[in-house]
């Protein structure tokens, strides 16, 4: 596998951030709960609150695995982490969100998944 092929399968931080926001709305999870479950002190909260901030690959894998595990416990299936899939996910969730999360979902929809 070439280096370029490797990079294209790893989501950009902004797409992962949008996917995580959607999953948190869908599963009623908090950043603190996810951070605690994945061994960090509010790492997820810092990642979500700073659009320019990245997240380590191992932390991102742990977060994705934990969130997908939570979804499985609720018999839900989460979409892939891609701009197009995240935009569709946000559109489905926007009506059930409120406050800050609704604003964040609206922003995801405005930029069309930003990919």
Report what the structure shows.
This protein is mainly α and 115 residues long. The protein has one domain (10-110). The protein has 7 helices and no strands. The chain starts with a helix and ends in a 5-residue tail after the last helix. The model is unreliable at 1-8 (pLDDT under 50).
In terms of DSSP E residues, the strand content is under 5%
Largest sheet descriptor: none
SSE ordering: HHHHHHH
- The dominant shape is globular
Task: Summarize the model shown.
The chain has 115 residues and is an all-alpha fold. It has 7 helices and no strands. Helix 2 packs parallel to helix 6.
Features:
115 residues, 7 helices, mainly alpha, disordered N terminus
Topology:
Elements: H1 3-9, H2 13-27, H3 31-37, H4 43-49, H5 57-73, H6 83-93, H7 99-110
Helix pairs in contact: 2-5, 2-6, 2-7, 3-4, 6-7
């Amino acid at each position: 596998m070439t280096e370029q092929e490797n990079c294209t399968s790893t989501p950009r931080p902004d797409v992962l951030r949008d996917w995580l926001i959607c999953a948190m709305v869908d599963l009623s999870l908090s950043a603190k709960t996810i951070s605690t479950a994945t061994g960090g002190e509010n790492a997820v909260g810092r990642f979500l609150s700073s659009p320019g901030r990245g997240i380590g690959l191992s932390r991102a894998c742990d977060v994705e695995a934990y969130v997908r595990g939570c979804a499985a416990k609720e018999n839900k299936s989460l979409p892939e982490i891609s701009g197009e899939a995240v935009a569709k996910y946000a559109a489905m969730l926007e009506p059930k969100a409120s406050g800050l999360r609704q604003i964040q979902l609206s922003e995801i929809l405005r930029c069309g998944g930003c990919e």
